[in-house]
Amino acid sequence: MYHEFDLDDIDTKAKPPVEEPDRQYYFIAKCREWVRAFKQRYGRLPESYVLNMGCQMNARDSEKLTAILEQAGFLQAKTEEADFVIYNTCTVRENANNKVYGHLGLLNAYKKKNPHMKIALCGCMMQEPTAVSTIKHRYSFVDLVFGTHNIYKFAELLDSSLHSDTMVVDVWEDTDRIVEELPAKRKYRFKSGVNIMFGCNNFCSYCIVPYVRGRERSRKPEEILKEIRFLAADGVKEVMLLGQNVNSYGKNLTDPLTFAQLLEKVEQIDGIERIRFMTSHPKDLSDDLIEAMRRSKKICNHLHLPLQSGSSRILNLMNRRYDKEHYLNLVDRIRKAVPDLAITTDIIVGFPGETEEDFLETMDVVKKVRFDSAFTFLYSKRTGTPAASMDEQIPEHIAKERFDRLLREVQAIAAQKADCLTGRTLPVLAEEINRQDASLLTGRLTNNSVVHFAGTKEMIGTIQQVYLKESRGFYYIGSLQ
Ligand code: 5AD
Ligand code: SF4
């Protein structure tokens, strides 16, 4: 929150304000009254639990949900056995939906033990009418359902739900609004995600995101910079600029600004030492961006550049609007400009019509580019997308066999690449105490690799010079220099 709103100054007897974000602060104050009444009645504060099930954008949204619950007075529970549980869902692949239904079974059992319990669902999966209908009919114990477009109204929806005995459902088809200046509770005090845009206009033929996140909308640069200045003053050293396709940032602004220009402005903010961004679409990655990365002292040595497929024929069916040659050429140009850059990617295996030859084209790109790491996915059919109705869906056993071959190749290359840095001393941002061994800290290189090294908890949030003694495939063992 970069404006201090004093919740005690809000008159909750008055009518709710019409303007945002004032309206939401009014409802936070209302929820706080509910929390106080709960405490008087039961002699304890209610506990809440936010589960993020999706990508970095969802993680940032979850931080906003957490802040609102905290300001309303809820304590944070360590498990899902809480008084208010909210799942921020994903729907990019079918198994994400199955996971939600699985978890709901467990929550139902908790709710039978705790009659105060309220269960809420939000996020991408709730934008799918079939999912909402399944929840209404088969999971009627759920108390609140809302989607991605009205998440800024969470305080208001929470207030309705706390005072209602029936399921509150509020899902919007789309929005052109961006509500600024709502609170967020960061998971890490020294790093933060920052939304720079919402939605996606690309309509890759397999992808449900444009349907559940709506059309592309960029935040105004002055709002983004104001937020980052606030974060820097609050101790943040690393920002991750977030959008489904950051390379097309700014196109729909009244005063258009490119992503490269935005990066240059972020670079000038004192206190910010590392800048990351996600996700880049290969069709829109400009020479200006390459130049900004080359010149910058703060942009991290890491680019996530989803390939999806190495076959130009499949890329065309996927509506990706680039081909194999374009991708390889782009990687060459970026590597020439920024030699130590780590490149990571996303690859889908088993897209409808994918032949063995198409798959070998993907393997070829993997061998040529030598990704530092790759997220590999089995194609998942998403109802409503063009690919779902394409002929020649690939039998699961064939897709799985290709997936395993791809994964072996990707992992072997990643291990070899990681070995290249062994023996060097590099800056590491210490992020947390190691989960297995409390004498170690876990941190990240600017190329996003994980490093474990002996250190003290006072170092968390600082950048240390660490000697990389040994690479163990997915992480390094290092020592302070
Ligand atoms: N099936 C499998 N993977 C998918 N992705 C998006 N949609 C699908 C789908 N239907 C992957 C893409 C994207 C990543 C976030 O998820 O690789 O880059
Ligand atoms: Fe989905 Fe393509 Fe948009 Fe990424 S760019 S969110 S894969 S439609």
Structural classification: alpha/beta
Helix content: 25-40%
Mean pLDDT: 95
- Put simply, the count of helices is 13
Report, as a whole number of angstroms, the end-to-end distance.
37 Å
Main sheet strand line-up: 2-1-3-4-5-6
Give the total of beta strands: 19
How would you sum up the global shape?
globular
Oligomer: single chain
Bound molecules: 5'-deoxyadenosine, iron/sulfur cluster
Sheet with most strands:
6 strands, parallel
- pLDDT < 50 runs, ≥5 residues: none
* Gyration radius over CA: 23 Å
Beta-strand share of residues: 15-25%
Q: How would you characterize the overall build of this protein?
A:
The chain has 481 residues and is of the alpha/beta class. It has helices at 22-42, 56-72, 94-113, 129-138, 154-162, 209-213, 221-233, 259-267, 287-295, 312-317, 324-337, 356-369, 396-419, and strands spanning 47-52, 75-76, 84-89, 118-123, 144-146, 168-170, 191-195, 197-198, 217-218, 238-242, 274-278, 302-304, 342-349, 373-378, 425-433, 440-444, 450-454, 463-471, 475-480. Strand 13, helix 12 (356-369) and strand 14 form a beta-alpha-beta unit. The longest helix has 24 residues, at 396-419. The radius of gyration is 23 Å and the shape is globular. The relative contact order is 0.08. Bound molecules: 5'-deoxyadenosine and iron/sulfur cluster. Residues 92-93, 206-207, 306, 308, 346, 348, 377, 379-380, 382 line the site of 5'-deoxyadenosine.
